[in-house]
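Q: Could you fold this chain for me?
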Amino acid sequence: MDADALVEQVKALSSGDVSRIVGERMRMFNGLGRRGTDEWFSELCFCILTANSSAKLGVKIQRELGSEGFSTLSKIELMNRLRKMGHRFYSNRAEFICEARRFRNIKNIIKKFSDAKSAREWLVKNVKGIGYKEASHFLRNVGFDDIAILDRHILSVMHEHGMIDRAPKTLTGKKYLEIEGKLAKLAKRLGISLAELDLYLWYLKTGEVLK
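A: Sure. Below is the predicted structure, expressed as structure tokens.
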């Protein structure tokens, strides 16, 4: 299969029931973007948890702990809660979340940047446990729609359609931007945002539309 085939698959999804779900998710992200910094910090912690883990587990933990738990539990308490809820990397994720508390005013910090890519660079350089994928995930979830979340599902779809030679397990910043550029061209062909394209491609691979 090639990129043209992928375009047709996404077009088919965007004219069916999946488009309604994608629309709901986009409205949810935009709504979160209008909420306060506590909710933004909770979302940052969620994205720290999803690295080398699953979005479903991250959602489960976020619902149980909430912004208050992420903000106030001691490192040991947080570590124990993450372990009991089944997170494989409970120790270092607890450490990363505790260290991220110095950026609890994350909404105010991000709003100072003129564009999403500049904000992403800041997140990668300053928030421990956040790489390009996690930073993109966070920014998408708080309403930015012009960056891509290059997780294993998205990379796999791109590889299957000949857009990349292989689905790399790790990405340098330079490689991330290069692959993101290919998705940006695809999104432009389809007349949708990168954020919407991500949701459609995720659905193609998993049959679900998660956050």
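A (continued): The chain has twelve helices and no strands.
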